Amino acid sequence: AVQCSSRMGSERATAANVEKMEGLARQAAAGGARILVFPEAALTGYVSAPFLHTWHAEGRRLPPGSGLAGIDPQGVALTPDAEPVRRLARVAGELGVYLTIPFVEAGGDGRDFN
After folding, report:
1. What is the enclosing helix (H) or strand (E) of 81?
2. Residue 103 predicted with pLDDT over 80
3. CA-to-CA distance for 69 and 81, rounded, in angstroms?
4. Which of 12, 63, 82, 87 could form a disulfide with 78 if both were Cys (CB 3.0 to 4.6 A apart)?
5. Model confidence pLDDT, tens digit, residues 40-73
6. What is the DSSP letter of 83?
7. How many other CB atoms are found less than 10 A from the CB of residue 91?
8. Which residue, among 108, 103, 110, 75, has the nearest Cα to 18 in the 3D structure?
9. Angle, to 10 degrees, between the axis of helix 11-30 and the axis of helix 83-95?
10. 3-state DSSP call for residue 70?
């Protein structure tokens, strides 16, 4: 498993996450790892680093008392053929490793999936 934090909420955050994940994948592969597992939704982010924001779909409740503010994933959620996903797939092929690429996935019906 590769432990890392990730940014969330924008395309710029996703781009920063790609850079970080690629660097960590290269480091782990150089150390002999062959199966790399990143944390949940590492590519698009899951919860903001100071634990103030989380993904939030309209019409769904945030946990009472959590203190979290919601960010709508529309426009940030990715499809499996999105360039950030394809880039990490190319890195995995180049390094000869298996790599999980966890992200918030945009569903075709307007719903997003984790």
Report:
1. none
2. yes
3. 29
4. 82
5. 889 998 765 655 666 666 666 666 777 767 766 6
6. H
7. 20
8. 103
9. 10
10. strand
